[in-house]
Each structure stands twice: as structure tokens, then as C-alpha cells.
Design brief:
The protein is mainly α. The chain has 8 helices and 2 strands, in the order ααααααββαα. It has one domain (about 5-135): Arc Repressor Mutant, subunit A (Orthogonal Bundle). Helix 3 packs across helix 4 (about 50-60) and helix 3 crosses helix 7. The two termini are about 30 Å apart. The protein has a two-stranded antiparallel sheet. Strand 1 (about 80-85) and strand 2 (about 90) form a beta hairpin.
Length: about 140
């Protein structure tokens, strides 16, 4: 058995996730957003008024969690939820779009730093592929 087989992969994945979350939350604190809220806003913007179900799938959330996630954003009027007989959709408000601008820069800067670090060690493609694999249901 080699050392990779003995590694605790759950801890190996969770440790950098917690570290990155703390770092991003600290950077976003001035904008009064958490990393989870910024990612929800960014995902809503990227999907352009997604159905709530599409947002849930894109974020990898279960149905009960996706309902709770936008509530603080709704309260602060960063998003609105529209309902009709067919579906419910989440849309950024102009305030939400404006509020996302600075956090988007922070997230992009951190994303670039992670990519550069992984690329410098020649593992960027492998890590991205592994994360995509782990993100699948």
C-alpha cells in the first residue's frame, strides 16, 4: 500500500476548503457578505435568472438548503424570486448586481492565485479534473 492509499482524503479536501472559506469570508467582511452568499449571487448572475431548481443543481445543494440560502439576500433586496404556474426563478436586483462587483473582484483574484499556485506545480489540470469528479452526485 502506498502513502496515497493511507491518506485521509476527506480531511485533505476539507482542510483547504475551510482555510479558503475563512480567507474569503475575511476579505468579504467589509462588503457584508459571506463566501456562500457571494457564490450564490455569482451563480445567479452567471445563470441569468435561473429556476430555483437550476440554482440548486449548480450549487450542489439539497432542496431544503436552496430555499434557505437566498433568504438573507432576499431580505437585503439583492435578489427577487418570481413565481408563476410553471416555476420559481431567482433574479439579481440592480442592488444585488452592484453589490456583487467588489466581491467578484476578490473571488477572481483568489481564483487566479490558486490557479497560478497549482500551475506552478504542474497539477492544475489534474486538480480541476479531480474536483469536478468529486462534485458529481
Amino acid at each position: 500500500m502506498n502513502s496515497t492509499q493511507n491518506d485521509d482524503l476527506c480531511s485533505a479536501v476539507l482542510r483547504p476548503n475551510r482555510r479558503l472559506s475563512r480567507k474569503i469570508n475575511a476579505a468579504l467582511k467589509i462588503h457584508e457578505l459571506t463566501v456562500e452568499q457571494a457564490v450564490v449571487l455569482e451563480t445567479i448572475a452567471a445563470l441569468d435568472c435561473p429556476r430555483v431548481t437550476d440554482l440548486r443543481i449548480a450549487l450542489g445543494l439539497d432542496p431544503s438548503t436552496v430555499s434557505a440560502n437566498p433568504k438573507p439576500l432576499l431580505k437585503r433586496q439583492f435578489v427577487v424570486i418570481t413565481e408563476d404556474v410553471v416555476d420559481r426563478r431567482v433574479k439579481l436586483t440592480p442592488e444585488g448586481e452592484m453589490r456583487l462587483q467588489s466581491p467578484r473582484k476578490i473571488l477572481n483574484t483568489m481564483d487566479d492565485a490558486i490557479k497560478q499556485k497549482l500551475a506552478a506545480h504542474g497539477v492544475l489540470e489534474e486538480v480541476v479534473a479531480a474536483l469536478r469528479l468529486l462534485s458529481q452526485p
